[in-house]
Amino acid sequence: MTDPLRIGIAGLGTVGVGVVKIVRQKANLLATRSGRPIEIAAVSARNRDKNRGVSIDGYGWEDDPVKLATREDVDVFVELMGGADGPARAATEAALRAGKDVVTANKAMLAIHGQELAELAESRGHVIRFEAAVAGGIPVVKALTEGLAGNQVTRVMGVMNGTCNYILTRMEESGLPYQTVFDEADKLGYLEADPNLDVGGIDAGHKLALLASIAYGTQVDFGAIELEGIQKISIDDIRTARNMGFRIKLLGVAQMTGRGLEQRMSPCLVPADSPLGQLQGGTNMVVLEGDSVGQIVLRGAGAGEGPTASAVLSDIIEIARGTRLTTFGQPAAGLSRARPARTTTPAPYYLRMKLVDKPGAMAKIATVLGDAGISIDRMRQTQHESGAAPVLIVTHRTDRGSLDIALENFAATGVVQGEPVAIRIEDV
Length: 428
Ligand code: NAP
Ligand code: HSE
Fold this sequence. Notes:
single chain; elongated; six-stranded parallel β-sheet; ten-stranded mixed β-sheet; alpha/beta; 16 strands; binds L-homoserine; binds NADP nicotinamide-adenine-dinucleotide phosphate
């Protein structure tokens, strides 16, 4: 056997502890698979005295992750602290400048600074691996960069935030409203420290931006994602969708079109009997479509100690084996800047609104839709509640631009109470 690969782990939370456990418990397996032993040289976290349920005796300790990243006895810096900037970014840059390879689970950092970090790494002959950053234990980064390297990717889709999928699934099965289920998820510890990262679609948007970069050979552009969270989804929407044979999912879609790169992360209706519609609880699913391979579906745990650490270990083993891949599947310096395109791919839309009880109210709504070139497929009005009638409309295929015009013009009719809900019905 050759020399051991020595890793330095910054961050001993959920993921970091999972990595320490695997390295300790499966040393022989890892050495056999890698062709060399994998050893933890040193670790870093905020609090040295915290009981982490795993022994860290025998490893070097650094209070400062930048010091850990530049230690002589560290070959690979494993960043598991999180945060787009701060110590994660500082230590990652320091590691690359000090001649180390980097493994990270940090989608926020890579979605914002991925291009410059990849250029820094590659200009010095180092690698950054990030399998754990997207969909936890699902090996989707490797599927795209390696397994589908011979394809022109036509579409990337996925449910990539387990917390949102848990909330939407739980609302459907319990009949409880959004806020109650959100509070439950909070008590269960499912939410990020800033819950808006989950329910605002930001965390899933970070993941989509990384996959889009690999799929289309473009620079990561999180800022170009059309982002909408699940906060406005009501139990009425969930019930109505179910009655129509759909489920609501926070769905990410990245698609290259003649006008540029469409990237959206938003609640969508998907057929209840489709693989995405069947996805329950905190599980993730990524659907990849390529011109040669057709469609492939990857499903599994998107978070948690074991699944995420499993992905981190796959990157460490890859480096130990001597595999030297570029960060985003082709040299970072050659990645083009995609022209961001607002979604123009047409789709049917689900609209829910409350109409005041006035003669001609429904006619005004139908006129606004007609004027915007939108044709109605189905329409239903239920009993008035406090002077307003809940109205549900399913349109024929239309583009988002026309829909936005209609939504703006609804306000001028004076018959719509509150803000209408518009949800895309995605062709999956
Ligand atoms: P976590 O449980 O909150 O742990 C964060 C760790 O970082 C803690 O050990 C903390 O130290 C340490 N830390 C924070 N600031 C530090 C600093 N300035 N210096 C040294 N150490 C510092 O986080 P996590 O859930 O393991 O997530 C880690 C990364 O993996 C994040 O990028 C996250 O997005 C990503 N990720 C997580 C999951 C998941 O299921 N949890 C899944 C996929 C990706 P103390 O323990 O001493 O406070
Ligand atoms: N908050 C994330 C989720 C954790 O719920 O999927 C994994 O990235």
